[in-house]
Specification:
By secondary structure, the chain is of the alpha+beta class. The protein folds into four domains: about 90 residues, Rossmann fold (3-Layer(aba) Sandwich); about 60 residues, 2-Layer Sandwich (Dna Ligase, domain 1), CATH 3.30.1490.20; about 130 residues, ATP-grasp fold, B domain (D-amino Acid Aminotransferase, Chain A, domain 1); about 90 residues, Phosphoribosylglycinamide synthetase, C-terminal domain (Glycinamide Ribonucleotide Synthetase, Chain A, domain 4, Alpha-Beta Complex), CATH 3.90.600. Helix content is about 30%, strand content about 25%. The protein contains 13 helices and 22 strands. The strands form six sheets. Strands 3-2-1-4-5 form a five-stranded parallel beta sheet, sandwiched between helices. It has a five-stranded antiparallel beta sheet with strand order 12-15-18-22-19. The longest helix has 21 residues. The protein is globular. The model has no long low-confidence stretch (mean pLDDT about 95).
């Protein structure tokens, strides 16, 4: 099977490494890729834009791809999967209409309301909203305000704050950019990321994970695309994960079929587990980053055949998934200035030393052939172990030998879970 992966981050690097382990994957390609992927796949750096359906389809046809796996959300929302399907190419990723579950938070709220799925109360403000309307909506929320850009923001368009002035500032910034903004009630309880393979009404969950969104230790600093993750969750009983599928993912999949826009691909449910059980924070229409790096590290089921089954509508015929025993943990090494203004071009050393897996995200080669930073989240270090402590030690030991001037990372990934500080109440 000749497979083309679309994307350039550590998530796509993780996908390629997992696909490489499947004998069914005879040839791997990636576009646009990054400096760390050359040993795994043929890298197409200059093919065009991942958001250009025609360019992606032309590349897939040019290499005679049997399957295209779309990593990021932007090409999905742009309709890349639709063009590929129209050209007769199997694709892992939802249609443009179905990808609105991530592309529009207002649409996602409407789907959840129809499906009877618990989520935060929300009110929308549109560009041009009057002063009185804005202040009136702010009055309806608090003491913790959750302010979201209604569109795509790569995990960084959300402000959660107890300061009304900060909430108002983000409202004004989103509206000034010409985008709708959503204010939500705050959902308490630990957060859980659950990935589900979805083929119409067939829903197959992967291992639940937990992401660390804030930039700094102790959940301080701004929201980011994610600074680390771990799986499985020692504080989450198996029946709790099953309940998320039953109460959240399955009803949404059924509702999408009812609407005539069946879902095909990866449905990512981000939920908070409060006193009444799981409630949805958001949906994503693709594998999440950095959770994917940890989750796929433990998957034993061959990935190429699994993704192809979703793409070809045969997921229901697949056997139960198999997983390695133990834990996996991802730590993100971020460039100086991330998430606001990441610095690029700094030389990275020690990334090829060995130990835990080092997955590339924002990396490139300079004129001297040196590995340099080329984005905000630069590397994902993935450790595994029989215990969460072992996985942490594996990841952080490898990270300690990597040098990137001005870089930062969190030292507390999974520490609250190890200390027994997380529970469902």
């Amino acid at each position: 099977m000749r497979i083309l992966v679309i994307g350039s981050g550590a998530r796509e690097h993780a996908l390629l490494l997992a696909l490489q382990q499947d004998p069914a994957a005879t040839e791997l390609h990636v576009a646009p890729g990054n400096a760390g992927m050359a040993g795994v796949a043929t890298v197409h750096h200059d093919f065009g834009s991942v958001a250009d359906p025609a360019a992606v389809t032309e590349l897939a046809q040019g290499i005679n791809a049997d399957l295209v796996v779309i990593g990021p959300e932007i090409p999905l929302v742009a309709g890349v999967a639709d063009d590929l399907r129209a050209a007769g190419i199997a694709v892992f990723g939802p249609s443009q209409a179905a990808a609105r579950i991530e592309g529009s938070k207002a649409f996602a709220k409407d789907v959840m309301a129809s499906a009877g799925v618990r989520t935060a109360q929300a009110e929308a403000l549109n560009p041009g909203a009057a002063e009185e309307e804005i202040e009136g909506v702010l009055d309806c929320f608090g003491p913790t305000w959750v302010v979201k850009d209604d569109g795509l923001a790569a995990g960084k368009g959300v402000v959660v704050t107890t300061d009304r002035a900060t909430a108002r500032e983000h409202v004004d910034a989103v509206l000034a950019a010409g985008n709708p903004v959503l204010l939500e009630s705050f959902l308490d309880g630990p957060e859980i990321s659950l990935f589900c393979l979805v083929d119409g009404e067939t829903v197959v969950p992967l291992l639940p994970a937990q992401d660390h969104k804030r930039a700094y230790d102790n959940d301080e600093g701004p929201n980011t695309g994610g600074m680390g993750a771990y799986t499985p969750l020692p504080w989450l009983p198996a029946e709790a994960a099953d309940r998320i599928v039953t109460e959240v993912c399955q009803p949404v999949a059924t509702e999408m079929v009812r609407r005539g826009t069946p879902y095909s691909g990866l449905l990512y449910a981000g939920v908070a587990w409060g006193a009444e059980g799981p409630a949805v924070i958001e949906f994503n229409a693709r594998f999440g980053d950095p959770e994917t790096q940890a989750v796929l590290a433990l998957l034993k089921t061959p990935l190429a055949g699994l993704l192809n089954a979703v793409a070809t509508g045969t997921l229901a015929e697949q056997p139960a998934l198999e997983w390695e025993e133990g834990y996996a943990l991802t730590v993100v090494l971020a460039a100086e200035g991330y998430p606001a203004a990441p610095r690029k071009g700094d030389v990275i050393t020690g990334a090829d030393r060995g130990g835990a897996a080092v997955l590339h995200a924002g990396t490139a080669r300079n004129g001297q052939g040196e590995l340099v930073s080329a984005g905000g989240r630069v590397l994902s270090i993935v450790g595994k172990g029989v215990s969460l402590a072992d996985a942490r030690e594996n990841a952080y030991d490898t990270l300690s030998h990597i040098s990137l001037p001005g870089s930062h990372h969190r030292d507390d990934i999974a520490l609250p879970a190890m200390r027994g500080e997380i529970s469902l109440g």
